[in-house]
Amino acid sequence: MKKSTFFKILKYALPYKRFAYLNIFFNILYAFFNALSFVMLIPMLDVMFGTTEKIDTKPTFTSITKIGKYLKEYLDYTITIVKEDNPENALLLMIGLVISTFLLKNLFNYLAIYNVTFLRNGTLRDLRIALYKKVIHLPLGFYSEKRRGDVMVRLTNDVGEVQFSFLSILEIIFKEPLTILFTLGAMFYMSTKLTIFVLIFIPLSGALISSLGKSLKRKSSKVQQESGVFLSILDETLSGLRIIKSYNSENNFKNKFTESANKLYRFSNSLLNRNNIASPLSEFLGIVVIATLLWFGGKMVLMDHTLKGSDFIAYMGLAYGILTPAKAISKANYTLKSAMAAADRVLEILEQENTITSKENAFSKNDFQDKISLSNVNFAYQNEPVLNNFTLDIPKGKMVALVGQSGSGKSTIANLLTRFYDIQDGKIEIDGVSLKDWDLPALRHLIGLVTQDSILFNDSIKNNILIGKPDASDEEIINALKIANAYEFVKDLPNGIETNIGDAGGKLSGGQKQRLSIARAVLKNPPIMILDEATSALDTESEKIVQDALENMMQNRTSIVIAHRLSTIQKADIIVVMQKGKIVEQGTHTELLAKKGTYANLVTLQSFE
């Protein structure tokens, strides 16, 4: 992992540094007892073979540098005393000591893993929360160029990959090197000649293993990118299942999904096969070392008589024990290469600049007193002009309707007033204060929005409506439902307002979903209401009833109504006719009909008089 990437991710682990310290502490104890557990086999084998050095005088501790010699002599002295009394007790003593060292070794290993679990999962949780907060706060413009599936992969798979890498980092830096260090110390103590041979071979095998991982980051990145495409196709399929079926387009989407699944299959196989070769390769190289040691060490025991048989057996156990941490290091190296690609993708979103935020000491108030003013506003989506020198005043308490053909910029006005996007040129003010100077939550608190698409969540009717006013009572919710002409169907549902409406409100009809959206805005009761085709999904009868309710609700309220159905905006105080981002006409319904211009033509086209 790149140094800069590592430290950027590390800050999410800092709140859990206590667990990291405990993990390191217990790993040191584990590494010590891991080496000691094999060393303890030597006196046990000496007891079994009757080769224990007999010491009748209790040894004296002289220097810390000779602690190994002192401990060995003290153990031989203890065995000598016990063996004189009962040889069987000497064997039981050694078996007990061996079991105790293995018990402590595994206990400390468990405690190390126990603590690193909190570090890993805490980091995972905080990363996910930070990423989700960023996803929510980034402006809508960011997602016009991103697949939803790709964002989901970053929030799940990529964050999980980064989280998993922290265990590998601790293994690389502490556990496995310490295990090797303590083991090598014991091996040097037993035979310097054999250990020098091991030290020459290990770096050579490590270099061979690491050379296989050079392309791992590139392969891992391909897997993660294709996972985003894969999830996007799945998300689009579930969202548009009705359209897919109605157009007999199942095979087309099956082919797209199969193509993505096949790519993911190929990329994953390539990545995992390269990853999985590290373990068997390192084990094979380790066995080559062991075989060579058996030949070389066997000569020292049988021919040169420079090494005791019990020492050689324990030495072989230690040498083989090095294989496990060596394999872990090689595998962790691979994991880090994969995690680097995932971390870069996570940081890409975390470090994405949010251009739409509240400035320091932003203006804030809870009411609307004068007017909304748009002056010479210019705006473009991805370099495609939408509004051109657009100027309009919307006085308090007035109902202003925006009409025009699709693409004329009507919905863009709604997006700019709620500051989902920022204008490129010109000025938008509420009560004489530029939107960019307003505190963003305070600004949006003033505005109620009902969109053409009914945005509902997989929850109860009550919780969907409470988004508008979280502390509202059931009575207030029911009143809002009545105004939106929704209570008639809600009261007949099995659980009333507690009824779950399914994913995206899938258990309801289009008209029912739209009425719940209207009820949500009614409950919020903001001074400024934006209705973007709010009645578009209603049948004629429901539309009339809801339109009457909306008109009652909009009395003494500033309303911006975007409508294709001109029958819904006859009573508007000002009707603004838009064309290619400009105002071509404005006036009342009667005034515009008398002009016999663009608005009159639109009315004629809708067969409305």
Description:
The chain is 62% helix and 10% strand. Helix 1 (3-10) packs across helix 14 and helix 7 runs antiparallel to helix 9. The protein has a 6-stranded mixed beta sheet, sandwiched between helices. Strand 1 and strand 2 form a beta hairpin. The protein is built from 23 helices and 10 strands. The protein is of the alpha/beta class and 609 residues long. The two termini are 70 Å apart.
Give the arrangement of secondary structure elements:
Layout: H1 3-10, H2 17-39, H3 41-49, H4 67-85, H5 87-137, H6 140-143, H7 148-190, H8 192-210, H9 216-239, H10 241-246, H11 250-276, H12 278-302, H13 309-321, H14 323-350, E1 371-381, E2 384-395, E3 399-404, H15 410-417, E4 425-430, E5 433-434, H16 440-445, E6 447-450, H17 461-465, H18 474-483, H19 487-490, H20 510-524, E7 528-532, H21 540-553, E8 558-562, E9 574-579, E10 582-587, H22 589-595, H23 598-605
